[in-house]
Amino acid sequence: MHGRRGKKHYSARERENLRRKQEQERELRAAPQWHQIKGLRRPPERPRPAVARPLTDTRRRDFDELAAALPDDCRHEIRGPFRRLHTVVLRHRPGLLDPPYLNGVVSLALATWHEDPETWRPRGKGLSSAFRSLVIHLLQSYPLSPHLWDLPLFTNGFDLEPRQRAMQFLTHLAFGSSPRLLHRGILPAPLTRRMLHLLTNPPYPMPYESMVRRAQVLGHGGREQLAACLASTRLARFQPREDYWHDFIHWCCRQDDLDLESVGPLVDFLHDRVEAGEPLALAGRTHASLCRLMRAWHRELANRRAQASEVYTPSGLAAGVWVTARHEDGAPGAGARWEVREILTGTDLIREGRAMGHCVASYGGAIAGRRASIWSLTCNGQRRVTIEAAAGSREIRQVRGKANRIPKPIEARIVERWALKNKLEIRCWAMNRALGRGKG
Which of 197, 318, 364, 384 is the most buried (most CB within 10 A)? Predict the structure, then answer.
């Protein structure tokens, strides 16, 4: 009979009959032809033939060749831990030695492990599930937000310092420590308790620096669009004067008339003042007054000749030429010739800045330090947009037209083709907005 809550109560006779039925079922399963007795066409648990899966070039390479392809500053630092991970991953999930999971395995070699990798057994059918199970096995002693376990895949750049900072942050949280105890070497930006809560609960996987910028923006009452815009500027990486940039983010969140298209140029302008040792005070300034100072700085850049004699080292990315079937305005025609070429001299850099009316001339130090590479997109010989590609992380950070306008859809599609050719990731707010996707 049923009780008041709808739960069935079995009598002693019914329980005995159920026990006998279960025993008979177990005896049938022990028989070799039990599937024929049950009327099945074939046994459900049959041995599956081994399928020889083809190995890619990355999987065929031995450890020495794979270690030689690692970034120079990471090679000696992680050689021992990476060898142990390479042996375990090659035994259980060799697909994790292919990009983009190889980048995550390299980052895990920089972390402090909680468990021995030899005891790891992958879980899940796909590579993403197997990689997350590897991260949780090595680091977990405290439950975290699910998206934090994908942080090794989004380490920003090939430099050793950003990778170490991201892994120290993840290890600190995974071992159960409070985020308020993070020292300035791991978290140089000053964050409130609400910002720390936003930092440790991201809505989707993203790089560590982008997580910090998003927490700062939302903690000050800003929008997700502003956080995505800041992630495509110089602030995508931590700066020496993080206190000053924290005040700048707060200033941006308080501006009701803030134009997101001007955020990138404003960051470049203020960055130049900070490097010169004369940071501009933001208290009491409006968006219009700061833009006037920025335009005056652009006119000053047009007259700079100090870096005209510089010659830069090529970045190694390939140029590209495409011919479209129609002109960029959509009218039928013979087609337009689009070309992407790298700027390798200080003279060309200054000419690009003068012709386009933006601050690309201030990127000479970043190009010389191999932190960025600058490319120019032309259509039938006329300059259309200027592209900044981050040297280490292989991503497109900025794409700007004349007077810092965002690219047009046809220009964004050409830049997307060039990025696909060079296997670059697009993390540019202006590009996502021009292509009609993302949070722009």
Answer: 384
> How many angstroms separate the Cα of 89 from the Cα of each of 7, 57, 139, 368?
49, 16, 16, 38
Residues 238 and 342 in one domain: no
Instruction: Give the model confidence (pLDDT) of 287-336 as tens digits.
Output: 999 999 988 888 777 666 545 678 888 888 888 888 877 665 554 455 78
**32 and 61 co-located in one domain:** no
Its domain, for residue 371, covers: 320-434
Residue 49 forms part of a structural domain: no
* Assigned token pair, 55: 């190995």
In a domain, 277, yes or no: yes
Q: How many domains does the chain have?
A: 4
Opening angle at CA 296, ends 292 and 299, nearest 5: 145
Percent of the chain clearing pLDDT 90 (strictly above): 28
Helix (H) or strand (E) holding 399: strand 395-400
Q: What is the mean pLDDT of the chain?
A: 81
State the Cα angle at 130 between 129 and 134, rounded to 5°. 115
Residue range 204-221, pLDDT digits in tens: 988 899 999 999 999 999
Residue 313 lies in a domain: no
Q: Report how far Cα 267 is from the mean position of its chain's Cα atoms.
A: 20
Residue among 225, 212, 214, 224 at smallest CA distance from 162: 212
70-74, 245-249, 288-292, 374-378, range with the lowest pLDDT: 70-74
User: At which residue do the structure tokens 């947009």 appear?
Assistant: 385
Note whether 355 and 409 are same-domain residues: yes
